[in-house]
Amino acid sequence: MLRIGNHGVGDGEPVFIVAEMAWGHDGSVENGNKIIDAAADNGAAMINIHITDVGNYMVPQYGAGPGRISGDRDVESVFDYHKNLNLDFDGFKVLYDHARSRDLLVSAMCNDFPSLEFSTYQLDPDILMIHPSCVGEERFLRAMAGKGKPLLLYVGGLRLSEIEEALEAAWSENNNQIVLQYGFQAYPTAIPDNHINYVQTLKSTFGLPISFTDHTDADDPMALVIPLLGVALGAHMIEKHLTFDRVAKPEDYEAALNPDEFKTLVERIRLAEAAMGSKHWLPLSEAQRRYRGIVRKRAVAGCDIPGGAALNWENITFKRSDEGLYPEELEHLIGRAAAHDIRQNDPITWDAVN
Question: Nearest 5°: phi and psi at 132?
Fold first, then answer.
């Protein structure tokens, strides 16, 4: 288990819920602050902010194509699109300060060295995230791991060997505060592509806290179900895109929930983890004891039994009843004489014998 701020993340701790802003601010500090307010008002513990110096993240000729930006935006240059969509460092500082004012923890997903240095020394986030696009850049990964912050290693689309190499690099920088995050954005991600069972695979293979990030089409009812499956399979963190208004179609809107939907998701996650309960054997709860008292069969007379007749397995049966001994208690009465006449279906109790 590790700690992010005052929150424990690991087995036995409440599910840690992260609101993913990504590029959903559409280049507007005002929109970003709306997302932060929605996260704070609707149950998120942390907001994730993508901090990027676009010129250090992608080349100007980086082209358009499926899976690179929100699907219904027709652009000739992804580089220009993101440059126009991006905030400068001053803008990110405003978002960070607003998140702090709303008592949110802050995750910084840094995509390049200038953003990492800015985030570390100007923002002081609670956790640093490294995107799959950057994991293979060992020098950058080591630099991030060496900042002394908890590290969220985003492993969507990575091979097992790449995850192992990334962990070795982080551990070599004496960073053992690592969360593995599984999932990927496909604008939106098709339900069969989630492979949520991989949460269990990562958990059992590496023994680290696991985060599941869901990018199901937000208009699909399953968008409020898929994250719950992550909880059921042992995810310690759930990350979900949050937008100020999906109708406005900001970047990443396909998988982003509106504030009221995010609130519903948080409520269902809390109900889901309550329903999961403990995996350990525990004393029966009051509800379980009440259930047993209602449904367990009890001993009753299988026929009329005259007083003085011996009680035996031929004249006693078991039926659901409000009175009567339980099966494991009856052996102490077998062979003893009935104290009085007992009618068929009357309960067999301790005072039924002399």
Answer: -55, -30
Residues 250-303 have pLDDT tens digits of 999 999 999 999 999 999 999 999 999 888 899 999 999 999 999 999 999 999
Spatial contact of 21 and 51, defined as CB atoms under 8 Å apart: no
Q: What angle do CA 33, 38, 40 make, to 5 degrees?
A: 95
The CA distances from residue 295 to 190, 261, 286, 321, in Å, are 44, 39, 14, 8
Phi-psi region of 327 (alpha: psi -120 to 50; beta: other; left: phi over 0): alpha
**C-alpha span between 79 and 341 (Å, rounded):** 93
User: Following DSSP, what letter does each residue of 135-154 receive, concatenated?
Assistant: HT-HHHHHHHHTTSS-EEEE
Contact between 238 and 268 under an 8 Å Cβ cutoff? The reply is no
pTM of the entire predicted model: 0.89
DSSP per-residue string spanning 72-124: T---SBHHHHHHHH---HHHHHHHHHHHHHTT-EEEEEE-SHHHHHHIIIII-
Residue for token digits 């990927």? 184
CA distance 116 to 145: 11
What's the half-sphere exposure (Cβ side, CA atoms, 13 Å) at 317? Answer: 11
Q: What percent of the chain has pLDDT over 90?
A: 90
Tokens of 104: 């949110």
Quote the tokens at residue 273. 């983890």
| Integer Cα distance of 160 and 78 in angstroms | 30
